[in-house]
Amino acid sequence: MSGQAKGVDVANEARMQIKALAEAVIRMKVGTSNAEALANIMLAYRHLEDASMRLGKVIQALDGGVSVYDKRTTVGA
User: Fold this and answer.
1) How much of the chain exceeds pLDDT 70, in percent?
2) Domain that holds residue 40
């Protein structure tokens, strides 16, 4: 396996972990009525979305420019 292929695999695994974590974070909204807590939950979720997107851009760069949008590892998809 080439270094690039291994990098893609590692990035995809990290994106899957981030997606699972993002799903857990967004579930924290249920039953939460505190405005500051809700705002911070959403901020944490958005940061996880961004982290996933950045890793997607790594994959895209290593994979010859092929977009990873809407793959199973995409947060929010």
Assistant:
1) 92
2) 3-62
